[in-house]
Amino acid sequence: MDSLNTYLFIAAILFSLGLFGVITRRNGVAVLMGIELILNAANLNFLAFAKYGGMNIVGHIFALFVIIMAAAEAAVALAIIINIYNNFRTINIDDVRELQQ
Amino acid sequence: MTGNMIMDYSLLILFLPLAAFVIQIFIGKRLPRQGDWVSISAVITTLILAIAMFASMLIGHDPEFAQEASFTWLDMGAFHIELGFLVDNITITMLLVVALISTMTHIFSIKYLEGDIRYSRYFAYLGLFTFSMNGIVLANNLISMYMFWELVGVSSFLLIGHWFEKESAADAAKKAFLTNRVGDIGFFIGIMLIFSTLGTFVFSEIFDGIAAGKMGGTVLTFAGLGLFLGAMAKSSQFPLHIWLPDAMEGPTPVSALMHAATMVAAGVYLCVRLFPLFTPDALLVIAYVGGFTALFAATIAITQNDIKKVLAYSTVSQLGYMILSVGTGAYIAGFFHLVTHAMFKACLFYGSGSVIHAMHHALHKKHDHETDPQDMRNMGGFKNKMPVTYWAMLISTLAISGVPLFSGFLSKDAILAGTLSFASHHPTHFLLPVFGFGAAAITAFYMFRLIFMTFHGQPQIAEIADDIHESPKEMTFPLILLSSMSIFIFYTLPYFNPFSDHGWFTELIIASDAAVPGNPSAHYIAEGVHHAHYTAMALSLFVAALGIFLSWTFYYKKKLSADEWSEKLKPMYNLSLNKYFFDENYNRFLYQPFLKLSGLVAYIDWDLYDKYFINGFGRVTKVLSFFTGRLDYDGLDQTIVDGIGRSVRQAGGILKFLQTGRLQSYLLFALLGVVIIVLVQSF
């Protein structure tokens, strides 16, 4: 097993775990954590490609951007969750079904 | 006068009365004097124009004068109809006659219909009639003649039924219209036979076609007889004469204009115009119909007591003369008689109108609404009370009886000479002159009977005699004018011989040759008439004198009692008095069977066909509809149409569970989609 595939495999597992969290968690904050996992899986891929795939510095810069974006995203998402809590008095996203109608 | 001017004048003569009609029918009632001056000035203008045309004809002195103008009316490939006008000497003379009588009628009507509830409408219809009659006179083709022919029928219907509140007037109008329909069918068949063979409606082209042998034999005979059937109905020839006496229900001036002088002459005019196309067989039929009508109607006129009925039957008889002359080929004599007859018969009708007017007012004053103002048995001794009427009627009576110095003598003599000449060429047809001379004798008899009964002797109803007065000037003026037109001199100018038929008329109006090959030429006929002239004159003088003498002994001197003789000849008297039971027989043998047939047909149609077939059909349809309804509603609608809806709803019911509103499940589906795409991509 060569090194790139190892990285990619780990990143895939990380992505799957994140996705699983996003889909199954009822707690909004936990869903947010799943999204962080997905983003970090992507970061891992960027870095792996930077080292082995010839992306070089571009991969590193992309990873940095993703981290910045993840921070911004976390800020916005947490604000949404606080708003949800203010409106529904819960952060259980199963109870937030306004879209149904 | 140039040709263009002639055409312009003709068009003005044609359309002025129509304009008067339009004005009268729409705003006549709101005009001062109910607008009678509109109509009267229109017809007086036409009279002036007609006189101008007539004068130019006399000055031009061209017997061959003819002017034709036409325009395309309908053009559909091979089917091409031209309408147009033909102005020749016959037309000009006829236009003058129509304009003159029409003007006189308008003037006469001012007083006669004073205070009538439909005064303006009456004048409107007179205008319509004058328009249509001028149209017939001017037509140069069968189609426009047929159209104006129908218009004349309509205006006749409207005027006979002027007092339609009276049931008899309404019935008479219907009778006239329906009897004319019978003739019109024949007319139309004739037109179609000619058109289908020759492909044209224009007179001159028809004659050319026949002369070229493109049409002939039996077809042409039938076409001619068809056209003659139209003339028979319009000119009230036996056996279609029944409508004319009844038409006397109309106002008397109308009777004078239409049912004596002009409209009934339309049939004769048609025969005169179309003379060249009649085959010898058709002419023979025409001659016999005319001759028989002349005698037959005269025998009815003897016993009638209604002054207008006498004149009506006398008109039928005189029209028979004209038709007879067409049949014998001397048709110009018939046209001559048409012109002279128009003058004296219109005058006689105005005279009778004047008498009836006087009677009516006298009776009205006595509040007598029972006595018939038209019955000659209630008159007598009016000679001194109404001198103008008396002299005018006497002059016209002398003219119609064929007394020398008067117009009727000239024209009747020409007709009788024609029959004599015809009979001398064809001895088997000796009956035709017998009809002619017999009718002449009877005419003289019954016309003087009318004069004696009305104007001579003692008043039959003494109490009204004092109230009989001469009619106003509007009524006596036409009488004076028209009775003077019965003097021979107006027809023999520039000559003054009252026994010779030479004059402008015979010089300017000449017969055209028959188009049918083998028919005698106009020259040949004229020769024959010329030869028979003096024999006919002697004979007609004799029969007229005989008739007048008999009338004088019966009704003036009363040496012979009319009552005794009618007792002696009871069966014949009754036949004549009851008009040969024509109406009754038509009723019994035509109308009643027809009504029964109609009843039977109605029974079959309504009680059998409608009730069983149509209604049965309906019932079957109803049952079928029930089943198809069920099939449609229960089967199609409930199962298929609603079924689709239901299945869609059920599917929706199932599918709606997918719409959880949970973002996570949407995401899951998105993921599933991605997985499926990846899988599809990789295989």
List the keywords:
heterodimer, A: 101 residues, mainly alpha, Helix Hairpins, 79% helix, B: 683 residues, two-stranded antiparallel sheet, 26 helices, 3% strand, elongated
Helix/strand layout:
The complex is a heterodimer of chains A (101) and B (683).
Chain A: H1 3-24, H2 28-53, H3 57-88
Chain B: H1 3-27, H2 36-60, E1 66-76, E2 79-88, H3 89-112, H4 119-138, H5 142-160, H6 167-198, H7 203-211, H8 217-234, H9 243-246, H10 252-261, H11 265-274, H12 280-301, H13 307-328, H14 331-365, H15 387-401, H16 407-425, H17 431-455, H18 462-465, H19 473-484, H20 489-492, H21 504-508, H22 522-556, H23 562-568, H24 570-577, H25 582-655, H26 663-682
Antiparallel strand pairs in B: 1-2
Explain what you see.
The complex is a heterodimer of chains A (101) and B (683). Chain A has 101 residues and is mainly α. Chain A has a single domain (3-100), classed as Helix Hairpins (Orthogonal Bundle). Chain A has helices spanning 3-24, 28-53, 57-88. Chain B is mostly helical and 683 residues long. Among the domains of chain B are: 279-577, no CATH class; 584-671. Chain B is 74% helix and 3% strand. Chain B has a two-stranded antiparallel sheet with strand order 1-2. The longest helix of chain B is centred in the last third of the chain and has 74 residues, at 582-655. The model of chain B has no long low-confidence stretch (mean pLDDT 84). The chains are: A mainly alpha (101), B mainly alpha (683). Chains A and B meet through α1 of A and α26 of B.
Q: How many domains, in number, for the residues of chain A? A: 1
Helix content of chain A: over 70%
What is the average per-residue confidence, as pLDDT of chain A, rounded to a whole number?
A: 87
| CATH class type of chain A | Mainly Alpha
Strand tally of chain A is 0
Estimated share of beta-strand residues of chain B:
under 5%
The percentage helix of chain B is over 70%
The Cα radius of gyration of chain B reads: 35 Å
Number of helices of chain A: 3
**Mind summarizing the main beta sheet of chain B?**
2 strands, antiparallel
Structural class assignment of chain A: mainly alpha
Strand content of chain A: under 5%
First-last Cα distance of chain B: 110 Å
Q: Name the helix and strand elements of chain A from N-terminus to C-terminus, one letter apiece.
A: HHH
Quaternary structure type: heterodimer
Strand order of the largest sheet of chain B: 1-2
Average residue pLDDT of chain B: 84
Describe the main β-sheet of chain A briefly. none
Number of distinct beta strands of chain B: 2
Radius of gyration of chain A using CA atoms only: 17 Å
